[in-house]
Write a structure and sequence with these properties.
heterodimer; A: 414 residues; alpha+beta; DNA primase, PRIM domain; Helicase, Ruva Protein, domain 3; 20 strands; B: 297 residues; 3 domains; 14 helices; disordered N terminus
């Protein structure tokens, strides 16, 4: 897109953002005076960091006058949040943050709506970006990701799994200690503010990540073992109704067996034959596992179960972005601010409204209509209406839909 | 005062009074010497001793020690899991506080039964956690007294002298001498070749590579120039970051993450090839030694 069109777009969006910040109160984070704030601005690449605000009014004033394109605050609490150097800030603790991003989920629609463009020769394609351009071999490739309902729905399912199965059931986190936020783009954030967890260091947080993802899980510690009884060996495994990973592993193995078919059987012959035997009788095997009996088929040894358990862990483990949780100094998007890539609100969600939350409806803040020229856009929905796909045409759109396209850089103002 | 002196001079094992008093005196000496290495050795030794003492205590006493002495959130679980009885439960935050440093996969949280915020433990594990709490407590520096009796001062000097001798044996932070690139661990080699192919690296990858190279004796210049291959190279910023990791301004020099962390970040390539190594620098040290030996012969 030409530079003046881009500038015109930015000025237009900035004015809309300004009006939003003038008319809407942003919710300051808990203990705001101990947080570091950071902002990005229209037309600039770098982030302004190390700012602090002692009361909501000064933050609001900053947002309405400087109009950042993106607003962040530290999950950490500092004695001197505005100190320029990390060691001078004096770290006091950090909320426990989880990030679920559609970027890390395999959804079939990515091949349809995500695009890449080689910066060198202009070649483009659909789906995830290749390592290097298939045409010219250069590696500078730009990615244009789209946010779509299927991706966001997949992210929301992961979110619900994270909250219900892991944070509440296993970690015992109460509903009043959890804050769920739509990121404004491709994912969701969970903020846990439990006092007893604030001082956990990176190692401890990494252990929490590993727990949720199932990294380093060894089935034998969850009861999947070969035990000797007299002369014969018998297999033992966890029961589906047990706590924590034990029950999750048992349920995951059943699910894996039921969903397994010829295609995901490994090449190795012994394993191949054993698995084929198991799959021939899937339903009976699943029933047997449900009853807690782990040797329903002759010749299925511990190695086969360990193989299936590994697949099961991948299936039922949580899909969270590790560094966000492990990093105790990271900046996170400020809830109720606006996301510069979409114009959507970084939208807090009540737990009870999680399943009915619709980002394409509840995160919209702009009202009115505007006509824009769309270069290219996949089909998308905003509110109750569907739009597109568009290619090189003038379209009158609801303001929120137009802002989304302008922010994504696929449209410009007439 | 004389009991204190006796406690130091002859720490007899079968006299409870002496035994009782020798600990605070030993602690006092450690604090006056004020050496982190000594404090750590002392803490580890005392933790081991306490664990063997905890073995003979009943469940009530152990929970009382954990709760009152260390403020650990724990209690009775009386739970049967997989045919085994778990008498104790401990809140996962306290579990992580004390056990996240244990290396054995057995201790990973993901290999534990965790329910409603609590980890279930057998007695042996619970006492290990308590011992870790003892170690942690003794590792925290305390203000030494201003006045030190001359008898103790003598011992302090003796201990301080021995600490220096012992510590030289253990000094291992920086690897001195010529750099042997053939001895780089696979994770580091992969990062370097990614850079040379002008592939952008994640923050954690850049941190790992930089801290590794600085710790094996690469000068800052050389590290900065290595990064000049990436498309969005900004020399000022890179130099600032490299200097920060080198601890030029803050005095804290960073070391690369341990293998376990590398795995979490997806930077670890092969566990088999590395053998029993727990840290990229450890891999380098071993292979460098081997390489230099081979080169000699």
């Amino acid at each position: 897109m030409s530079l003046d069109r881009q500038v015109k777009n930015e000025v237009y969006i900035k004015n809309l953002f300004r009006r939003y910040y003038q008319e809407n109160r942003v919710e300051p984070p808990y203990s705001m005076e101990k947080r570091e704030f950071g902002f990005m601005f229209f037309g600039a690449q770098t982030m302004m960091r190390h700012l602090s605000f002692s009361e909501p009014e000064s933050l609001q004033k900053f947002l309405a006058s400087r109009v950042p394109s993106n607003a962040f605050y530290s999950a950490a609490y500092y004695t001197r949040p505005d100190a320029a150097r990390m060691d001078e800030k004096v770290w006091e603790g950090c909320d426990l943050i989880f990030d679920i991003d559609a970027d890390h989920l395999e959804t079939p629609c990515k091949a349809v709506h995500d695009k890449w463009i080689c910066q060198h020769c202009g070649q483009s394609g659909a789906g995830e970006k290749p390592e290097k351009c298939p045409l010219c071999g250069e590696q500078s490739i730009e990615e244009r990701t789209w946010l779509c309902e299927v991706c966001l729905e997949a992210a929301k399912n992961e979110l619900i799994k994270l909250i219900e199965d892991f944070l509440m059931a296993d970690f015992g986190i109460g509903t009043d200690e959890l804050r769920v936020v739509f990121s404004g783009h491709r994912g969701y954030h969970v903020h846990v503010t439990t006092k007893a967890l604030l001082d956990l260091d990176q190692n401890a947080r990494r252990e929490i990540v590993d727990y949720i993802k199932g990294v380093g899980l060894e089935p034998r510690y969850h009861g999947l073992i070969e035990a000797r009884e007299g002369r014969s060996k018998i297999l033992k495994g966890p029961r589906t109704d047990e706590d924590g990973w034990r029950g999750r592993l048992a349920r995951g193995v059943i699910k894996t067996v039921l969903l397994m078919d010829e295609r995901n059987i490994p090449q190795e012959r012994k394993m191949r034959n054993a698995l084929r035997g198991l799959l021939r009788d899937k339903d009976r095997v699943a029933d047997s596992l449900r009853a807690g009996v782990w040797d329903p088929v002759r010749g299925i040894g511990i190695d086969i179960w360990e193989y299936i358990a590994k697949l099961a862990v991948e299936k039922v483990g949580g899909r969270i972005d590790e560094p966000v949780t492990a990093d105790v100094r990271r900046l996170i998007r400020l809830p109720t601010s606006l996301h510069g890539k979409t114009g959507f609100k970084v939208c807090p969600i009540q737990l009870g409204e999680l399943s009915s939350f619709d980002p394409f409806k509840h995160a919209l803040v702009f009202k009115g209509e505007v006509t824009v020229h769309v270069d290219e856009s996949p089909k998308f929905r905003v509110g109750e209406e569907e739009f597109g796909p568009f290619k090189d045409e003038d379209v009158e759109l609801p303001l929120s839909a137009a802002v989304l396209l302008l922010c994504k850089g696929v449209a410009y103002l007439k | 005062m004389s009991a204190l002196e006796n406690g130091v001079v002859s720490p007899s094992l079968d006299d409870p009074e002496v035994e009782f008093l020798s600990f605070p005196v030993a602690r006092l000496i450690v604090e006056i010497v004020g050496d982190a290495f000594l404090r750590h050795r002392f803490a580890v030794a005392e933790a081991k001793r306490s664990q063997s003492l905890f073995k003979d205590e009943d469940e009530d006493t152990l929970i009382s020690i954990a709760t009152h002495t260390f403020g650990i959130n724990c209690g009775f679980a009386k739970r049967d899991i997989g045919g085994r009885r778990y008498p104790f439960r401990i809140h996962f935050a306290d579990y992580l506080r004390y056990a996240s440093g244990f290396h054995d996969p057995y201790w990973k949280l993901v290999n534990r039964v965790l329910s409603r915020g609590y980890v279930f433990l057998v007695k042996e594990d619970f006492t290990r956690i308590l011992a870790s709490a003892v170690e942690r407590r003794l590792s925290e520096p305390r203000e030494p007294p201003l006045k030190v009796p001359s008898e103790i001062k003598q011992i302090v000097d003796e201990v301080a002298f021995r600490v220096v001798a012992k510590r030289e044996k253990y000094a291992f932070d920086k690897v001195e001498g010529e750099v042997v690139e053939e001895a780089f661990p696979p994770c580091i080699t992969a990062l370097i070749s990614a850079l040379q192919r002008s592939q952008p690296l994640s923050h954690s990858a850049r941190f790992t590579l930089t801290s590794f190279l600085l710790n094996i004796g690469y000068p800052i210049e050389k590290v900065v120039s290595l990064f000049s291959e990436v498309p969005d190279f900004k020399e000022d910023l890179t130099r600032y970051q490299v200097e920060h990791i080198a601890g030029i301004k803050s005095g804290t020099r960073y070391t690369p993450p341990k293998c376990e962390t590398m795995r979490t970040y997806g930077l670890c390539l092969s566990r088999e090839e590395c053998g029993n190594v727990k840290h990229p620098l450890e891999y380098y040290r071993r292979h460098r030694r081997r390489h230099l030996k081979e080169a000699e012969s």
